[in-house]
Design a protein that fits this description.
Blueprint: E1 15-19, H1 23-29, H2 34-54, E2 59-66, H3 74-94, E3 100-105, H4 113-125, E4 131-139, H5 141-154, H6 162-166, E5 179-182, E6 201-204, H7 214-225
Parallel strand pairs: 1-2, 1-5, 2-4, 3-4, 5-6
Helix pairs in contact: 1-2, 2-3, 3-4
Bound molecules: farnesyl diphosphate.
């Protein structure tokens, strides 16, 4: 019989998000092209996402590609698009046995028809699974809000509540965001989940994303659990 490691139960964290920064610097430090950093970052993504689910956290969101990232060198953009396509192919085989529901956050309209089709097929195939993995891809927090406001106008809504906005975000299916972890040492949110993070906690670390480990994940989670969240109250 397997014994459960209760020291690794962080189910009070219902939704965690990662800004996976530092891939380029990780590669540069090793004299490798930046693209190698993204390939290594994709491996870390898979490991950390699974580690979160194993700790009882039901919803994981990662920032894989922003609306601004299109202006990076073509070779780098192509590499990230290819990594995503490879990940989808891998996930198509594994996702149901791992009970993971994949949802892409962002505007799929700018993706190639082939990648868009693959992304939508994976969402459809995994839609009845229990854990939620949100992959922010061609995602921008402001862009997301513009989409919501356009929808509200199209629907003819005039008396708008916070719930009207929250329920039309790409994260409509996810619980409230608890914790955002940013690796790579920068202290900013870079247009990520700007509505959702209103009352989220932040954890910043200088560790570069490919080096982010399960030990450091536990450190971030313990740090979060020791915080007192007041949500604006006393
Ligand atoms: C930021 O690091 C990282 C990105 C813009 C891309 C993140 C992408 C991945 C981890 C791979 C995605 C793949 C899957 C399958 C989810 P940076 O390039 O800005 O690093 P730097 O600040 O050191 O230059």
């Amino acid at each position: 019989m397997q014994t459960e490691d209760v020291s690794k139960d962080f189910s009070q964290v219902r939704h965690i998000a990662f800004i996976m920064d530092g891939n380029g610097r990780w590669a540069k430090l090793r004299g490798l092209p930046r693209t190698s950093g993204h390939a290594e970052g994709a491996k870390t993504f898979d490991k950390i996402m699974r580690a979160c689910f194993a700790r009882g956290i039901n919803t994981v969101t990662v920032y894989a590609f922003s609306t601004e990232n299109w202006s990076r060198p073509e070779v780098e953009v192509k590499t990230i698009l290819k990594l995503m396509s490879q990940y989808i192919s891998y996930a198509e085989k594994k996702i149901n046995e791992n009970d993971i529901r994949v949802i892409f956050l962002g505007d799929k309209g700018r993706l190639s028809p082939a990648l868009r089709k693959k992304a939508e097929a994976l969402e459809e195939k995994s839609k009845n699974n229990g854990h939620i993995l949100n992959i922010a891809f061609n995602y921008g927090g402001r862009d997301e809000l513009v989409h919501v406001f356009r929808r509200l106008i199209q629907e003819g809504k005039t008396d708008i509540t916070e719930d009207d906005i929250t329920s039309r975000l790409y994260t409509a299916e996810s619980p409230a965001l608890d914790l955002v972890v940013r690796t790579g040492g920068d202290l900013r949110i870079s247009n990520f989940l700007i509505w959702q993070s209103a009352y989220a906690e932040y954890y910043f670390t200088p560790t570069l994303w490919p080096d982010f480990s399960e030990e450091e994940l536990d450190k971030a989670l313990l740090d979060f659990c020791a915080r007192e969240r007041r949500f604006g109250k006393v």
